[in-house]
Amino acid sequence: MSIVRSKWTSVILNLFLCTIFFWIWAPANNLLYFINFLFYFSCFYLFTGLVLWVVRGGLFDGVTFGMRRFVSEMSRNKDYLDDWKDRPLPSKTIQRSFLSFFLFQGVLLALFSIILLIVYYR
């Protein structure tokens, strides 16, 4: 994330990567295959962003806390330096900027693919 400073430059970078993949792997060079590649990129970003959103919402915090406690109580080799109570939960490890990056990229690429679909079917 530190390499790409602006979210707009990362959108342009994603469009450039999509274009490169389109030229390499598309069976025919037409707009429909480019829209498909753009849709695949947007699905990846949206799916990753939604999974991060669910984790950040705290859905898995209780399960993680319970499993850490269970493992620390049931293990034979106790590690006294590793305290399971002080380790951060999954919702605390995901930053908001990281989550918003994936959601922004996914929504923008999906909107661009919808606009291209409208142009294609006119």
Automatic annotation (TrEMBL):
**In the UniProt record, does the keyword Transferase occur?**
no
- Keywords assigned: Membrane, Transmembrane, Transmembrane helix
- Extract the InterPro entries matched here: DUF3899
Which residue windows are transmembrane per the record? 7-25, 31-55, 98-121
Q: Does the record carry DNA damage as a key word?
A: no
Pfam families hit by this protein? DUF3899
The segment(s) forming the DUF3899 domain are: 35-117
Its domain of life? Answer: Bacteria
What is the protein name given in its UniProt record? DUF3899 domain-containing protein
> What is the species listed in this Swiss-Prot or TrEMBL entry?
Halobacillus naozhouensis
